[in-house]
Every structure is written in structure tokens, then in C-alpha cells.
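Q: For a teaching session next week I want to show students how multiple molecules come together into a single three-dimensional assembly. I've collected the sequence lines for a complex. Could you give me the predicted C-alpha cells for the whole thing so I can convert them for display?
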Amino acid sequence: MIFDIEYETMPREALESIQLQRLKATLERVFSTVPFYREKFKACGISPYDIQTLDDLQKFPFTTKQDLRDNYPYGMFAVPMDNVVRIHASSGTTGNPTVVGYTARDINTWATLMARALSAGGATRGDIIHNAYGYGLFTGGLGVHYGAEKLGASVIPVSGGNTKRQIIIMKDFKPTIITATPSYTLHLAEVAKEMGIDFRELSFKSGIFGAEPWSENMRNELEETLHLHAIDIYGLSEVMGPGVAIECVEAKKGLHIFEDHFIPEIINPETGEVLPYGETGELVFTTITKEAFPIIRYRTRDITSLNREPCICGRSHVRMNRVSGRTDDMLIIRGVNVFPSQIESVLMKTDVIKPHYQLVVDRKDQLDILTVNVEVSESLFSDEIKDLQNLEKKLSSDIKEYLGVSATVKLVEPKSIERSQGKAVRVIDNRKK
Amino acid sequence: MRVKQLSVFIENKEGRIAEVTSIIAEVNVNIRAISLADTSDFGVLRMIVSNADQARDALKKEGFTVGETDVVAVKVEDKPGGLNKILHLIESSGLNVEYMYSMARIIDNSAVMIFRFDKTDQAIDVLTKSGLPVINKNRVTDD
Ligand SMILES: [Zn+2]
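A: Of course. Below is the structure for the complete assembly, covering every listed component.
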């Protein structure tokens, strides 16, 4: 169901004229209220009044994560604190965290976009939403929560953790939609199985999975084990939070970006040059309705491409393909670009392997050595050593064949790969130490 | 005639075997036979236990990957050529032994070997027809 039919199906021409009008207003506002933007625009010799077409946006400078850190905590806010009603922050593994703010209108916009997203994923006001995204400084929990209420659905604010209690709730409260990271959901399914509860007997019809990249193979696994539609959602706190883009349940092929609020671009991460539709590069966002924390040409570091083809669901908004990696996750191994997600796809070609794996990169005698640790699931296990050794060899040669890079595959015990907040730690790069 | 064997995947890390045996001891299950096949990185611990289901559940609860395989327990005469007789018969019948190990307990004053054959039913058939004593599973486990 389309929540906001007027805007979500708006003809391109009308949509672009709204974008231009909103973009101009946003640029003018940041120019006069945020010293960071004013100085940067001036340094580039550009004024917000120069903008005539949407393409003129390309003349403006990028904003990076480092810029946000440098302006910690409130330097990028475009309204006085009086008007800010909510603050979120993303964890900073290195350096300052990035802090974002929302006015009352921003919160309302976010709730509306999140309601659109849940709706695109198959939710209606009659649904019960089991929201297992973490509540707190992270935008996931509260973002989904407000959207669910805006939609009129019933939301269970279960948050992350306490897995066994979550399973009892799923069994007794009969939620019909789950919102969580895909890896935590697979963990829920594993624990449910140990408790003798089959996900297929629960009442779920859709799962809205995000906050970490996942693959098409993982969709098959999620849909098969959980017996639901697995829907990809995208968002980041710097741009808004969850609900920037969503797959529609009708096509499940790419995520519609809510273009009446965000302008996406794809750039070459090396040169910064804007790439045409269909080409793969780094995703860049400009917000055009946000009040407290507008952001201009923000480099997300996510790798994807944009698809302008009309969609069977009727939405006119452009679709981004699945995020295939991060510019900073991209490993260069002996000159070959490798994304963890590619390794995952290769592993999942072999049987029904659970995607618990980790890439370890070392450097020995000036040579990069890639080791892929794979947790042995029951379906992969054999009582015979030679079968296990053959499995390691087969996975290595598959990786070599599909990615063009040599890797040693090592089978490891289940649950031995380090998890961080429910997410498996995918890459350990010892070359940086 | 088939006996249920448990196999457990373990990394070659200090103390892992002891961890498996202590989990099994905690649920009061007896280990009747055990063998380890390993490489430099990992190993497969194979076991015949008094109660396979109980041991398997306890191990899985602790996060181990556990497999189940049907094996055959055969009495081996305690005299020269005792084992040879069995292996020869299996080979001449076109069957293969994937691996074998011995049981810790003596049954009817004879040694007992655990065999994993490529074709379990055919192997049992060949052994029984030749009068070689295949031991019933209830004499090996409590199942
Ligand atoms: Zn669609």
C-alpha cells in the first residue's frame, strides 16, 4: 500500500520542480545560518543564488564525516537550540561521534517517511510491529517507532537484546512485522529453534531489515527460515535515520529513495565526479526539507547505483540498488578491490551456509594474505576430515574464481567469530596495525 | 545393529576436548568410545556415549556443531589375525572402511571395534552372514 500517494507517485517533472524549489531554499538557509557552509561555499566561489537547475548542485562542495566531527557537537545545526526537540548521535569508533538534531517538524517528517517505508514493506494500520532495533542515541529504534505510530500500527518497543524474552513475546503477542538487523534476526531464529519454536509457525508476514548491508542470498535465507517477505531499508542518522529509502514488497528490487526530501547522487569515490544513472559508485545525499540538520552533498561512503526505470508498484521515486559495500570497508588485496558482501555471496553458493564469516588480512613479506574464517554450521559439518578439508578447498577456489583473489578458508567453531552489538565483525585488517 | 555416533567439530585450541567431555559428564552421560581425527587447524571428535540424545542436546546448547552418524560395533577376537579377518571380508565384498577406533570396554571377554563403513547396511549384512559378531546397540549404549 502507498501511504502518501500524492508525493510517492508524483510525475517526475513535478517532483523535480519541487526538488529545485526546496534545494534553493535549503542552500540559502545553510548559507546564512551555518558558518561552515558559508565559508565553504565562499571558498568555492559559489553562492546559493547561482542555482538554476538541479544539475547546478554539482558545483557545490561535498560534506564528509570528518566535517561533522570537526563541528562537534552542534556546529552544523541550522536552527537555535530553542527549536531542537531531539538529539541523536552515531557511535564514533574513531574520533568524535556525529551529533544530529531535529525540530518538531523534522520529527514529524521523519515519522511520515518511516510510515511510508513500513507501508511499502507491507505494513498496514492493523499490523503489530516487533521493533528490535536498539532504542537510544542510535536512530533505528525511535525512527521505526514514530513511523509505526504515524502509520497507526501497534508497535512493541522491544529494542535489542534479551533474546529469549523476545522469542516469548513473538510467540505470545503475535507480531506480524519484525524490524531488526538481518544478522540479529538470524540469531533470533537460531535461539528460537533451540527453544523448540519454529519461526514459520509465528505470525510474521514482513521483516524490514537494515542498519547493515546484506545480500540477495541472505534474502533467500531469511525468507526461507523466517517465512516472511524480507525487505531492505536504508537510512543514516546524518541524513535523517531509517526511512531514507525502502524496497517495495511488490518488486523487492532496489530501494525507492524519498526524493521529495532527499536528492541522491552517485560519484566516483576517487575523483568526486558525478556518475550517470546505472553506474556504481559512492552514494551522496542532500537533504531538502530538514530544518535542524540540513546536509549538503554528504558522502555516505556506501557503494551502490541508481535505477531510474519505472517500478511496478507505481512509485515514481528513483531506486538505489542494495548497498554492496562501504568505501572504507573496501579492502584492496594485492590490487584487487574486495567487499565483504562479495565473499558472503560466494559462501552462500555452497549449500545453505549461514553467513557467519570474517575476513582477516595480514601482510607477510610485502604480500597481502587474506584468510576467511567460516563458522561450521550443521549443514556443512561432516564426521569425516576429508570432507571438511574439501569444503575449505572448494570455498577457496570459489573465491578465487569469482573475486580473482586468493584466500585461505578456515573452518571455525560456531559463535567463535566476534559479534559487536549483534553484528558480526566482518573485517580484521592487521595491515593497519 | 546400527549404533549412533556423535561427532563434534573442534578447533585445535587448548582445552577444547576437555570442554566437550565435561559438558557430557555434567549431564551424567558415559563416554564408551572416543577418537579424534585432526588437522593442524581443526579436529573431529567422534564418540559413542551412553545416551546420545542427551549428550547432543547438551553440546548444542553450549554452541558446538554436532553431527550424528550410524556406525557398527563389531567384536574382534583377541588373537592374531582377528582384525584382519574383518577387514579382509569387507574389502573382498567391495565395501570400504572410512575409519575405525576401539571401544574402551570389553564385551563377552572380547575387544570391540567401532567401524564407519561407506555402506552401513551392506556391511552389517556381510558381517552377520559370515558369522562375525556385530553387537546390538543396546549393549553399547543405553538408548
Ligand atoms: Zn516499487
